[in-house]
Design goal:
Helix content: 40-55%
CATH superfamily of the largest domain: Endonuclease Chain A
Structural class: alpha+beta
Number of domains: 2
Number of helices: 12
Largest sheet: 8 strands, mixed
Radius of gyration: 19 Å
CATH class of the largest domain: Alpha Beta
Distance between the termini: 60 Å
Strand order of the largest sheet: 1-9-8-7-2-3-6-10
Order of helices and strands: HHHHHHHEHEHEHEEEEEEHEH
Number of strands: 10
Strand content: 15-25%
């Protein structure tokens, strides 16, 4: 029997079924196609992080319980750990292009478990080369690339092709696909720009110096980085999988036809 002293209703629902955190996360992913892990599920149970709407709906079905019951502990007045941290999650402001590229590269080179990069406009060769080096030399690193629409530059197309030469998205390491490329094809989807690992994240911002491009940004610490990465993983899970060079080249040709 599970008592009311066993924490949140979400945790009690899991314990009532005798599921470990890993089992609960796996069952949720089977429903949503997402990438929730035991650590994130634990954070949901404790209220350290809030569950998104899509996962709330799936968990309500999974546990046969109303969302207002399962997530009452998240929806109270108490702020989450991330909300309480406020600006302390900001490691630094990046006000020059060189700083931005250096910080994005640092996120890549310090990643050990996973790396999530979003956007269809990447073309900084040093940054893309750093990702390719990490993929080549760190076989356990899971790399997610989420495209919003078509790749805008030849440099990004070439990067995707090199990734597919380095790894096959169909291969598994310890039961996990370590290369996941997804294309969000809905034209209404707003493009997002960030790179995040289990340690750090960088979010590029519109230029502070003029109307051209994104040459500034912010570097964020672990709590914010983990949240952004989970955001990217969930988007990638529901995006169109890009698994072959032919698919990449077809996307590139469509981009060229549109003048992108």
């Amino acid at each position: 029997m599970v008592s009311g002293s066993d924490g949140s209703a979400l945790r009690r629902a899991r314990l009532l079924r005798g599921w470990t955190l890993e089992e609960a996360a796996g069952r949720l992913n089977a429903v949503t196609g997402g990438a929730t892990d035991a650590s994130l599920f634990s954070a949901w149970e404790s209220g350290r992080k809030r569950t998104g709407l899509r996962n709330r709906a799936a968990l309500a079905r999974l546990f046969h319980e109303r969302t207002e019951v399962l997530f009452a502990h998240q929806d109270g007045m108490a702020p989450s750990v991330l909300e309480e941290s406020g600006t302390s999650v900001v490691v630094g402001m990046l006000t020059r292009w060189a700083e931005l590229v250096e910080a994005m590269t640092e996120v890549v080179t310090t990643a050990e478990e996973w790396l999530v990069a979003t956007g269809s406009r990447s073309r900084e060769k040093a940054y893309l080369a750093a990702i390719e080096t990490a993929v080549a030399h760190s076989p356990d690193l899971v790399y997610y690339r989420i495209l919003y629409g078509l790749p805008r530059h030849r440099e990004l197309t070439d990067h995707l092709l090199r990734l597919l030469e380095l790894r096959s998205p169909r291969e598994r390491r310890n039961g996990v696909a370590t290369l996941r490329i997804g294309a969000v094809e809905q034209e209404s989807a707003m493009e997002r720009f960030f790179v995040a690992s289990e340690r750090l994240a960088v979010v590029p911002l519109p230029s502070f110096h003029g109307s051209e491009g994104f040459d500034c940004g912010i570097m964020l610490a672990r709590d914010a980085a983990v949240g952004l990465a989970q955001h990217g993983k969930e988007v990638c899970a529901s995006a169109r999988a890009v698994e072959t060079a032919d698919t990449v080249l077809a996307l590139s040709r469509r981009s060229a036809i549109r003048g992108g």
